[in-house]
């Protein structure tokens, strides 16, 4: 491990505070456990428990929704009472228990609820410790979130390869057990590396400030954020099918043979995080060049472009399913789908989080950003409803439906661009006719 000294004399790893490595690895293993279990969930319910497909989609959508609903309350509890470190340890322990409970068929619903509960404490508390590692004027701070986000995708990339392979070839319970072990690894790293994290400080706002939930927001900002939540909810109802109905099609409608080797169906779930890792540097460089030339799109324009790109990805699947309606489509179609879908994802999700972060009043930063998770919650619920139609229509028609949903979301996002420019012009004295060249933080996707 490369250890150096920062300008302030503090020891660093890879040019960053040593605590960032601890948070990075903890997050990586937590994501490994979460996405490892999620890669198996729909297959486990439909193939092992023989739950009807439409019901499985509802269960999947409800679970993923709850996993992003509980952080809204978990963050408040951590800030007000538990503290970030205790919340991470408690949440990680509860999640590990939930993953191990998945090895018992009769405990399915209890296990899913347990994981969602633990995620509520863990998810908002771990990344919120990054700021404490840096001085306010430290130039390394913006890149810290990029480094941290890589951990999300490394964990998401490895999870289907390891947990998915174990589940498919040796038994579903081995895959779930591996996810639980991953969470234990993350907890162990966090506990051992705790000495590299700064002392925790909690500034409790005055009661009148806490009670004034929307103090600091004007009507235009609230309307913009509410409309944005609606558009993103619609978008995620299509996007969330990646781990749901698209996963089912990968098993039923795709020829997974590569020569004499049959590609495990869960391995395709690794494509999304892998492509995120590979594409992010190129997109950031492209946006930086556009910003320097004054041609960069505004955040809402980027989000609209992203939704349209995702629509194109589903059009591709609809085409593949249509031309192969009496057989199986080549797995190359699925790889192309993930490449296009992930490109659109990188345009829409990080920019959405960035808008919420920028428009947050000073004392409501955590609460405002937490409301971004509410869009993931509602979108996941909507995704469960949309997924229930999979068994009622042909794959070509179904994927066309998803493309249509994404187009409607893109239209809504494009309509919100003008109001958003006006809000940013008032709040930050920006030119409403110009694109926003601020770097946006990365979302947990």
Which terms summarize this structure?
Growth Hormone, Chain: A, 2 domains, disordered C terminus, Peptide MFS transporter, 4% strand, MFS_dom, 445 residues, mainly alpha, two-stranded parallel ribbon
Topology pattern, helix = H, strand = E: EEEHHHHHHHHHEEEHHEHHHH
Q: Residue ranges: pLDDT <50 for 5 or more in a row?
A: 3-9, 205-213, 436-445
In the residues, how many domains can be counted? Answer: 2
Strand order of the largest sheet: 1-2-3
**How large is the radius of gyration?**
22 Å
CATH homologous superfamily classification of the largest domain: MFS general substrate transporter like domains
Put simply, the count of helices is: 15
Total strands: 7
Strand content: under 5%
Helix content: over 70%
Shape: globular
CATH topology of the largest domain: Growth Hormone, Chain: A
Structural class based on helices, strands and sheet pairing: mainly alpha
Rounded mean pLDDT is 83
| Ends distance | 29 Å
Characterize the main sheet: 3 strands, antiparallel
The CATH class of the largest domain:
Mainly Alpha
CATH architecture of the largest domain: Up-down Bundle
InterPro entries: Dipep/tripep_permease, MFS_dom, MFS_trans_sf, MFS_Transporters, POT_fam, PTR2_symporter_CS
Keywords: Cell membrane, Membrane, Peptide transport, Protein transport, Transmembrane, Transmembrane helix, Transport
Subcellular location: Cell membrane; Membrane
Domain Major facilitator superfamily (MFS) profile: 19-421
Describe the structure.
The chain is mainly α and 445 residues long. The chain folds into 2 domains: 13-201, MFS general substrate transporter like domains (Growth Hormone, Chain: A); 215-430, Up-down Bundle (Growth Hormone, Chain: A). The chain is 71% helix and 4% strand. It contains 15 helices and 7 strands. It has helices at 18-48, 53-82, 84-101, 108-125, 141-170, 172-192, 207-211, 219-239, 245-252, 271-293, 299-323, 331-359, 365-387, 395-415, 417-428; strands at 3-5, 11-13, 16-17, 254-255, 257-258, 261-262, 329-330. Strand 5 and strand 6 (261-262) form a beta hairpin. Keywords: Cell membrane, Membrane, Peptide transport, Protein transport, Transmembrane, Transmembrane helix, Transport. It holds the Pfam family PTR2. This is Peptide MFS transporter. It is found in: Cell membrane; Membrane.
